[in-house]
Amino acid sequence: MSNSSLVDMRILSPNHSGRRNQPITKIAIHHTAGAISAATIGNIFKPTSRQASCNYGIGNDNKIVLCVDEANRSWCTSSSWCDNRAITIEVANSSNGGNWPVSDRVLAKLIDLVTDICKRNGIKNCTYTGGKDGVLQKHEWYANTNCPGPYLGSKFSYIASEVNKRLSGNSSSSSAANTSSLYRVRKSWGDAKSQKGAFRSFENAKKCANVNSGYKVFDAKGNEVYPRKSTSSKNIDALAREVIAGNWGNGGERVNRLKSAGYDYNAVQNRVNEILSGKSSSYVGGKSIDTLAREVIRGDWGNGQDRKNRLERAGYDYNAVQRRVNELL
Ligand SMILES: [Zn+2]
Q: How far, CA to CA in Å, does 15 sit from each of 1, 4, 164?
């Protein structure tokens, strides 16, 4: 287990439980309820009398302090369940009171740090579901606190989507770098003469295809990679479930993001409506029963009635998942 290379300073806190007893599957984002520097965050958690800590702090000076090694369980979220699973981050405000704002550059730094944590810990999809089953966690779900405050709290969907852009973008750009491949914009792969350009950056290739109607982006092997074909019902299902999980935002934002990612918004939204109306209660798509059962055992879906409600709301067959859980245990 490693720490982030984005760290500017280490002010290690003695306030932690030693090694965490769970793999890292969560990231809890807090606010400091104060406009303070990274060094101040570190110094606050230094005395044993404080009985609190975080893995990382981001100061209003835009610097990152490491307070507790990622391998260790910090004392941050008032929950052993959460802190054993979560990397905890204290984020400084840009001013005190009001909606407890955070500056844009600190928010950008936070997105960089969360992306780095996901990459190093194998979190492939940084979800914010508004509940404990997602990756991003809020302190206020575990204790009587306003943390992370109104402003930062309103940014969780945005943070998740920005992190996921980086996670998917980086994987395609690193594979491009590995094979030194180019993205070609053509009418069809066979029609080499129609080529408008060849790009190292997938984003730039998409922009080129967007302004040339009828043009598509092909990878080095000739696979059509944009616009993404969403003709297979499996794609639509997976997307609809991501939408329900909150990964694509709401309203106009959802429309724009799905369209700009090359998906058929109407088809996805129709599927979302179907799933939510219960017309597909027997359907178990998106994740396999086995994956879900393992998530349930890991604690991602809560217990008892809460578990049943959440699984069914996400469109899954609770009984099938629970049977698999019982088999595995
Ligand atoms: Zn907090």
A: 19, 20, 32
- The CA 82 to ligand 1 mean position distance, Å, reads 12
Ligand 1 centroid to 147 CA: how many Å? 5
> Residue 32 has what pLDDT?
96
Rounded to whole angstroms, what are the CA distances from 298 to 1, 81, 132, 163, 183? Answer: 19, 11, 12, 23, 40
Q: What is the pLDDT of residues 106-138, one digit of tens each?
A: 999 999 999 999 999 999 999 999 999 999 999
**How far does the centroid of ligand 1 lie from the alpha carbon of residue 140, in Å?**
7
Structural domains present in the chain: 9-165 (3.40.80.10), 181-226 (no CATH), 233-276 (no CATH), 289-328 (no CATH)
DSSP 180: T
Residue 109 CA to ligand 1 center (angstroms) comes to 18
The amino acid occupying position 264 is D
**Residue 127: CB atoms within 10 Å:** 20
Rounded distance between C-alpha atoms, residue 329 and residue 273, angstroms: 34
Q: In whole angstroms, what is the distance from residue 234 CA to residue 144 CA?
A: 41
- Distance from residue 306's CA to the centre of ligand 1 (Å): 24
Distance 196 CA to ligand 1 centre (A): 51
> What are the tens digits of pLDDT across the range 226-255?
876 544 445 777 888 888 888 788 888 888
Reported as a single tens digit per residue, the pLDDT across 274-311 is: 777 765 444 445 677 888 888 888 888 888 888 988 88
